[in-house]
Amino acid sequence: MTQPSYLAGALRRRHYPLSAWPWRALAYAATTLPVAGVLAVAWSVVAAPLLLVASALRQGRPVDVRVLAVLAVLASVALASAPLTSVPVAAVERWRLGLVDDRPRPGPARRGPAARWSSAAAWREVAYTAWLATVVPLAYGTFGLLVLLDVALVAGPWLAGGGDRIVLVWATVDTPAGAVPYAVAGVLAAPALLYLAGLLVAGQAAVARWLLDGAPDAGALREVTRSRARLVGAYEAERRRIERDVHDGAQPRLTSLTLQLGLARLDVPDDSPAARPLDAAHEQAKELMVTLRGIVQGLRPRQLTELGLAGAVGDLAARSVVPVTVRAELSHPAPELVETTAWYVVSEALGNVARHAGATRAEVRLTRADRRLVVEVEDDGRGGADPDRGTGLTGLADRVAAVDGRLLLSSPPGGPTLVRVELPCRP
């Protein structure tokens, strides 16, 4: 079974409490506290005076105009500097995301300093910083109160000793025996708190990935996406036409020509001057048949039609010079164009592993979830893959983008290398 690569996926597994993911979630939460705490203090310094003035105005009390002017200037300065102050926060958060998400992490938007105030990606970083300073402390504080309540319930039999009356939830107990049922409830609630903590951290990580993704603005790419969709549709129609024409037109005629040459060769004596040219023509016609068949099959790989995506990828793995493990979790088939793209992705990625990675093993993971087909190819090679040093990865990214997919690459020096492709599967 494929191991989950991020916390939200691990939470759906039965053995989550016994895995390393709760500890990774704890590490993420522990490192969140100082970051969110500093931001919350900074936010309160700016927001508290504004809230006090707003409260006074709402109650009809007079406020000095000079105070309003100073607060307006401070608020304007804070807002204007927010795109710059959010840069280190975003960098730290992208790094921390690796604690609970092994998938390639979104990179920062590489824009000039002036674009910090005009790009949507910069203001998404500002939004994440504000969210981290306000919502996250409240959520963690609420969860902390639940943990303290559960600890109080478990410790109730000891706290109720000595004749002291204690309040547990909505009841008051004064004896250890009376607190035992609450202690049992507290112990039973501990696993629920473990999962609740995982959900809290997974939600925070999901927001971080969503807001800190350095992808281009959707508005700027809307027309490009529409044009690309039209081109993909036209390409698919043309591919089917060529495949049909070659299969139904040229291939039968070439087959007939090959048979005619074979029959003509049988009628020519071996010592005739025409025998040798006929033999050569017959062999060339047969070779051309094989070549043409390969071209027709290359438009859509034959293995996909006969074996399906999982079987076709298994066939690629079996023919790889590097040992490859295939793990497929495909509940139902994907659209034909998506499967073809996924097959070419695996084929090119395994080719790169064999040619450049120096790896001893590789793994291919296929997952169909949330109307997406996710393809991951990981190897234990030397790493350091760079799209600028060759056309393989660039061509792969172009092929994925043609079906509105996304390619993510993680290849630090020394390895491992992970290529992750997400392909939308529209109904």
TrEMBL record:
EC supergroup of this enzyme: transferase
InterPro entries xref list: HATPase_C_sf, HATPase_dom, Sensor_HK_TwoCompSys, Sig_transdc_His_kin_sub3_dim/P
Domain of life: Bacteria
Membrane-spanning segments: 25-53, 65-84, 138-160
Molecular function as annotated in GO: ATP binding; phosphorelay sensor kinase activity; protein dimerization activity
The name this protein goes by in its record: histidine kinase
The entry's keywords: ATP-binding, Kinase, Membrane, Nucleotide-binding, Phosphoprotein, Transferase, Transmembrane, Transmembrane helix, Two-component regulatory system
Pfam families registered for this protein in UniProt: HATPase_c, HisKA_3
Domain Histidine kinase/HSP90-like ATPase, chain residue ranges per copy: 344-425
GO cellular component: membrane
Catalytic reactions of this protein: ATP + protein L-histidine = ADP + protein N-phospho-L-histidine
Domain Signal transduction histidine kinase subgroup 3 dimerisation and phosphoacceptor stretches: 238-304
EC number, UniProt record: 2.7.13.3
